[in-house]
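Hi support team,

I've been running sequence recovery on a batch of backbones for a student project. Most finish fine, but this one hangs at about 90% for roughly twenty minutes before it completes. I'm not sure whether the input is malformed or the queue is just slow. I've pasted the structure tokens below so you can try to reproduce it. Let me know if you need the job ID as well.

Thanks,
M.K.
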């Protein structure tokens, strides 16, 4: 894990990257200077980011915010052309071209007395501010975090500081219990039959499984959806999702929805809609990197 932090200065530029931390070869964290955003941000919200003037607009969940420091934190996975490009170019001291937000309806912090906050893979980051808000609201918070192996675990200390209990799950059993987050959820339910609510964030298949794990017990389960999104204002319609008998737009009606009502199968089909275009864009960018002798070429 590599952490880089800019020296303390009084002349920070708008959208300047103050800290970068690499959690794995493909997962990295950017702490960005944005006092206004930090003051306005609430758990569950997201931003639209452009890394440069001709770059793609991509939605990223606000993983953390610090009102005193005037920063927001983004945790990103390099899975396509733009996120791979950002992995290469977004270094400490550089600036993002633009950030719009905070967008989306803030997560509702209920009066629940006992809450399970579940994060799978990259979903660990956005579930953190929700877990912190629940704790600050007086709830007993049980964290369930899932990773493929111990080398990919991040933010364990941050969660232990706010959770009353923390269950780490790894696919291979190299850290915590061996299994998926659903195994952690079942363990929590068996120990605490009085759980009021579950919040689950991660890949759609993980959120679907989490909702299935709580359905029989009748536990309210909220999920945060990540459909294809272009403008973040509800105008493009790309982020529409089926929730019960209704069609919702994740950017303006969400991103949080009742996990027992979401049509995850439809969501997963829609997420594959531009797979071929994404592949072509990534290949073109990778070829450009190779022509320019970029050190990221082999990683791309």
């Amino acid at each position: 894990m590599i952490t880089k932090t800019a020296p303390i200065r009084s002349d920070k530029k708008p959208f300047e990257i103050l800290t970068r931390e690499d959690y794995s070869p493909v997962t990295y964290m950017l702490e960005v200077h944005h006092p206004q955003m930090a003051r306005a941000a609430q758990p569950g919200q997201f931003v639209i980011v452009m890394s440069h003037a001709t770059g793609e607009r991509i939605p990223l969940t606000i993983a953390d915010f610090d009102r005193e420091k005037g920063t927001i934190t983004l945790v990103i996975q390099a899975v396509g052309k733009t996120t791979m490009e950002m992995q290469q170019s977004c270094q400490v001291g550089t600036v993002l071209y633009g950030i719009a937000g905070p967008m989306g309806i803030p997560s509702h912090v209920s009066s629940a007395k006992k809450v399970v906050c579940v994060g799978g893979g990259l979903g660990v980051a956005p579930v953190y501010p929700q877990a912190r808000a629940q704790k600050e609201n007086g709830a007993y918070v049980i964290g369930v975090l899932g990773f493929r192996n111990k080398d990919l675990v991040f933010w364990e200390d941050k969660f232990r500081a706010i959770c009353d209990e923390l269950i780490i799950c790894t696919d291979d059993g190299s850290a915590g219990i061996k299994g998926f987050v659903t195994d952690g959820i079942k363990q929590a339910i068996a120990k605490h039959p009085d759980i009021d609510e579950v919040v689950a964030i991660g890949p759609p298949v993980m959120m679907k499984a989490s909702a299935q794990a709580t359905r029989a017990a009748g536990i309210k389960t909220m999920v945060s959806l990540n459909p294809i999104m272009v403008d973040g204002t509800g105008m493009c319609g790309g982020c529409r999702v089926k929730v019960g008998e209704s069609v919702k737009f994740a950017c303006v009606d969400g991103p949080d929805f009742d996990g027992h009502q979401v049509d995850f199968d439809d969501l997963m089909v829609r997420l594959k809609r531009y797979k071929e275009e994404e592949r072509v864009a990534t290949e073109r960018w990778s070829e450009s990197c190779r022509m320019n002798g970029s050190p990221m070429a082999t990683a791309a």
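--
Follow-up from support: It reproduced on our side and the slowdown came from queue contention, not your input. The mean pLDDT is 89. No action needed from you.
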